[in-house]
Amino acid sequence: MTGIEKHVLICGGTACTGKAKSIQPELKKQLEKYGLASSVRVMETVYFGLCGKCPLMLIYPDETVYEHVTGGDLEEIVRDHLRDGKPVERLLSKGGFDRSRIRVLGDADFFGKQLRITLRNTGIIDPESIEDYIEVKGYDALGKVLSIMKPDDVIEEIIKSGLRGRGGAGFPTGMKWRITADSEGETKYVICNADEGDPGAFMDRSAIEGDPHSIIEGMIIAGYAIGSSTGYIYIRAEYPLAIKRLKEAIMQAECYGLLGDNILNSGFNFKLDLRLGAGAFVCGEETSLINSIEGRRGMPRPRPPYPSVSGLWDHPTLINNVETWANIPAIILNGSGWFKSIGTETSKGTKVFALAGKVNNTGLVEVPMGTTLRQIIFEIGGGIKDGKAFKAAQTGGPSGGCLPTQYLDTPVDYETLRQAGSIMGSGGLIVMDEDTCMVDVAKFFLGFTEDESCGKCTPCREGTKRLLEILTRITEGEGVPDDIWKLERLCHTIQRASLCGLGQAAPSPVLSTLKNFRAEYEAHINEKRCPAGVCSALLRYFIEPEACVGCTLCAKVCPVSCISGTPKKVHEIDQSRCIRCGQCMAKCRFDAIYKK
Predict the structure, then answer these.
(1) Could you tell me the pTM of the whole model?
(2) Helix (H) or strand (E) holding 317
């Protein structure tokens, strides 16, 4: 853009969008005030990575990142930094950004051990501008494929790259493409699975909101490779910004002749449409997703036949998730050898994680396969909040396992995580500290999977319900010694007999916590005690007479009026009426209330 000297990029992802939009009018006003409106371009982009420090602002080419920017900060930023060239020190990001490698046109490796392939353009380009995407070599891979590569060449390149499906199962992507291409039938379909339902997961949403064209380009390339002219993106309706960006990107690609008939005068036709899901977790399973697109209830089908042979409307169907599709253009442009050089022997490339929980730097993390949990949590994530001790990391969402301290140096790849008792999953990574009750964690995830079970098969429908009942009983102080044996037996039965991956993996949080934190179950059952002090039914609150000054604040905040006492006299808690909400302890200014 002629005359533009600086770019101001404001993060407008789902976590930042309200705040980002609120500061833009004031920013433009200040730029006008100081005569900089024609030389500074303001762009709303998404996902610099540090979602807990929004709104974030990146100034390029100065490679400066500001965090927690408010409207009151903008005049100082415009006057001191954009006009006078003096960064505002008090707003500079403390998140460990490696500024020397931030580039508007090229790779973004923001902090520590990160390497971005899937998220290579997020936070760098305007996601609503196809021109920005083209400027960073967008659709160059499609042009290469349609001009000099045969369909078989494309498939072989993906096979040689070693790319595996990023939706959780890790099936070799190129092999799936080959099976679909070789399946009989003139009509074939390409589907993007953007039905992201894991608690705490936002990898796919982020990729779509920040770089929708990379997913579209990957799907078009796949359509050419397998002989398909129609594609669908299945996305949950709870992602309005992602849906908006996809609709705009599809329209732009059609206007540029990159979607539709005779793409780039090659004779190849490919059309793309959206299908919105109602938010059922089971529709992340590919056959349930297919049923939903067909207008049926989202329930899994027995396999085989697999979708690659008989999928959407009984035609061969290629299904990959958002992260997998985003890798395709990069592999085609840079070559399978480049991609294969990243990662481990059996797990190539990078993986995106949604880092959440009791960690200082929450947000998106993309690291090479083989990076250890310790590096992700402590070097990138900044360690545990409030200096507390690490207790466990839960990978793979509700279908994954909880890994304790001895697994911190475990390389993150498909095989190693499986051997440790967890899975890669779609990329959720929840960090827990010393105050986390692992029995309560298992109960939480079982509550989720029990609620999300489609009900088609008895092992999942009834088994998860029984597991939840036992876990609830244990956390309420009513567990019996036989409950541990019952949990283990029921978990193995559900794993073996359930129809789809949701049911087969539902017991994983229970089995992993039983294996790694068995003492906590035993304390709940045998001693009627929650070691972490979380399960309210097993807690009691007491007032320390020597510390209580009789300020009456605890009595005022008690919702059931179970605390009695007169001013300046020691108060007492009626244990028979206490609901163990903890409000008294939270409000006491003299540390006179404790729990045990």
Answers:
(1) 0.85
(2) strand 317-321
